[in-house]
Amino acid sequence: MDLPPVRDRIAQTVCKMILEPIYEADFEDSSYGFRPDRSSKDAITVIKEHLKGGKSEVYDADLSKYFDTIPHDKLQIALRQRVADPRILKLINKWLKVAIYEDGQYKSGKGNQGTPQGGVISPLLANIYFHLLDRIVNNTQSLFSKHGVRIVRYADDFVLMGKKLPEEVIDKLKSLLHRMGLSLNEGKTRKIEARTESFNFLGFMIRYDRGIKDSNIRYWNIIPSKKSEQKIRDKVKEYLRTHGHYKAEEIASGLNSIIRGWLNYFSIPGVSYPAMSKRRLRFYLNNRLYRYYNSKSQRKSRLYRQNAFEVLVTKFGLIDPT
Description:
Layout: H1 6-24, H2 40-52, E1 57-62, H3 66-69, H4 72-80, H5 86-97, E2 100-102, E3 105-107, H6 122-138, H7 143-146, E4 150-154, E5 157-162, H8 167-179, E6 190-193, E7 199-201, E8 204-210, E9 218-224, H9 226-241, H10 248-266, H11 275-293, H12 308-316
Helix pairs in contact: 4-6, 9-10, 9-11
């Protein structure tokens, strides 16, 4: 993905600063992605609240290439509803049509759809367009509200939740998306009963578990997904592979930035319970560091044939995930 020139990024930043407060006054509370003072943690917290309130039937939607398929003409109609300045509209239109620099040459833009690749303003434009659907779903007179259905959205990831999700609701959703020029990835989109089947959202796995001490007690367990656990293992592995002769304190510092980010993301007080995932990460770090410092290239290291993980934790400040 090629980033826009610096001057375009500056101009997009200024435009975003002008438009964001206008649209923040309009955006629905059910939208959490790329918005001030909102995060994935807020979205996961609300999902848990809906589940505890009995909205356990979930439509886990997956849009096909949302950022690349937003129709320019329909996006511009949405923009003109709130933006009167023709100069801003013209500027955004130019960004939508900008050529892409690939393989040493400029190629024509995406035609009549898609938001600027790597653009500062792209997430805001994407939220502006999807707000059309948010507004309809949350309208108190809508078919969705009639059936008590709620939407939780983070950028192009969203779920519909209700005590029941009748087919007419799903059909209505598909119809609205079609009118917006969007489509679902049917192979990855599914409707489930969350009390009997888990689902993933924003890197979390959400499932209805039995209590460890009392199997008659059930609770909503929210933990890092298997893919998320594998992702941090891959990052640790890659970091150690590319830092073969760094000092122990530098290794600890580099790994800490990876571990800290992961822990901050998946630890939501009173909502998520990543204890087992933390223990698995600790076990992986222990093994990976032992192998790292016992490789042939590390024989001169003072951590050769030692419990490197424990030494890095006690002497060099490596974060112990548990």
